[in-house]
Structures are given as structure tokens and as C-alpha cells.
Fold:
Amino acid sequence: MRDAPIRPMHEDDVPAVMAVETSAYYSPWSAAIFRDCLRVGYSCWVLERGGDIFGYGVLSSAVGEAHLLNLCVAPAHQGKGLGRRLLTHFIDVARGHKAEAMFLEVRPSNHAAIALYESIGFNQVGARRDYYPAPKGREDALIFALAL
Structure:
């Protein structure tokens, strides 16, 4: 799977992306959100092999900044380096867009993602209170940044 291609996401991919999204997140994005991201020109990519999508991400870039809005690997494929591969791809995309910094939000309870981000050089620069829906109320978001 480590050699599976990363390619641009297309609207036809949204149902497969949604299958991964709903399997991985308590409060998933809707199909309409992914379609809107494609429509407005965000950088949307999928990790795919043999017609199966098992990872994806969405990046917004403007005015020297890039924001990683979503990064996900199907639960059955997590822990195999695919999240790192997608993340480094998005860092390269952000650099290609001439971004000077890249930002993202992550749940404090997502220890694996935090470890990945920190291992690549992201640092926590802030927090958003009650940002994410959670099974028992709301969960904060930690804001991470990487100088590019």
C-alpha cells in the first residue's frame, strides 16, 4: 500500500471518500462539504489502489498560508505510514502554492495524529475551545503550525 498513487480527487470519488470519512470520524464531513471543496478549487487528493480509496485530504491555500482542513486514512489501513505519506504530499503542495506556513487543527484525544504532526516538525500554536462535536459534548481543537 505504501506505493499506492496519490492523485487529485474528483467528484466521482466523493461516495468512496464518504465511506472512509464515516468509518473514521465521530462527526464526519458531509458529501456536500467535499463537493464544495472541489468546486471552490481546494487541493483535494486521494490515496487509491485498484479503484479503492483508503486515504484523502483537503488543503486550502491563500495569502502565504496553507490550511490542512482534512486528512484521513481508513481505520483498517492506519499505522502503516500512509498518513505520513499523505501529510508530506500536502506539505509539498503547500510549498508549491508558495505558502510560508501550514496550519491544521487536531483533537487533543487524537494522540497518533499529534505524534505524526510533531514528528514532521509541526508545533502547537494555540487552541480552539469546544471546536469538535464529541460523544459527551464538545472537544477542543489544538492548532498546529509548520514553517515552510
Q: What stands out?
A: DSSP finds four helices and seven strands in the chain. The chain has one domain: 6-147.
